[in-house]
Amino acid sequence: MELYFILLGAGILSGILTILFGFAGGFVVVPLVYSTIRLHEVSDSLAYTMAFKSAVATSLLLMLINSGLASYQQFKRGNIQRKYLFPIAYWIGIGAVIGTFLSLYIAPIYLKWAFVTYLSMTILDCLSRQLKSQQFQQTSTRVLNAKEQRLGGIFIGGIAAALGVGGSVMTVPLFRRCGLDMSSAVALANPLSMPVALAGCLTLIITQWIQPPHLGIHFWGYFYYPALICLILGGFIGMKLTLGLSSKLSNTAHERGYIVLLTLVLFSILLT
């Protein structure tokens, strides 16, 4: 029972991260759901063996729901600049489909180090921008050209889907390079995380429809719904608590918090 309260807290944290940084909480949710399944299921059961895959599946569905709710709230507040949303959203969707299938054939270690390399470069870029911002204030913005949208979208969708994470760790820095402030970049990251989560969820649903896994009464296919209920409820609470906070943060403080979060994600990837 205590783990379900922890999952509720993780859901609240995922809701906060979704609003503040565009993170749907996968790096927090996956280990907790994995631990919950392993503690509640018999060690020689299929559910115990497939615990990590179920944790990723549950995280993807939560990501889809959280990103959808956050996108709706951001849209109501007029924070989403739609000229930056399309057509990169389509290319991210295409990349997510490609990444989902490539993950079946490419060794995970190569995907992991590709992501680590990108993340390290992004952190350095953010730190460099922080230093430059102390010398001058950037006021000009630009839109992505067709090549940047096509290649960037496929790369973001492919890497994110292959690793089972949201694309905000790549979309937010991309829009910051276009001159957008943190609040605008995070607002765009929410809807752009949805194609990745949707591609992953649909792939799992089709897989379980073709070959049902029969994990037990607490599962719908690969999705572990007791944890999902706690996470969805917690995510809703976290988003409600945080919705007005992001607009009150200064751009400098917002980006510094984002750098800290990216660094934590980098270490979590390196240690797994």
UniProtKB/TrEMBL annotation:
Keywords: Cell membrane, Membrane, Transmembrane, Transmembrane helix. GO terms for cellular component: plasma membrane. The keyword Transmembrane applies. It is a multi-pass membrane protein. It comes from the Bacteria. It is found in: Cell membrane; Membrane. Signal peptide: none annotated. The chain crosses the membrane at residues 7-34, 46-72, 84-111, 154-175, 187-210, 222-243, 255-271. This is Probable membrane transporter protein.
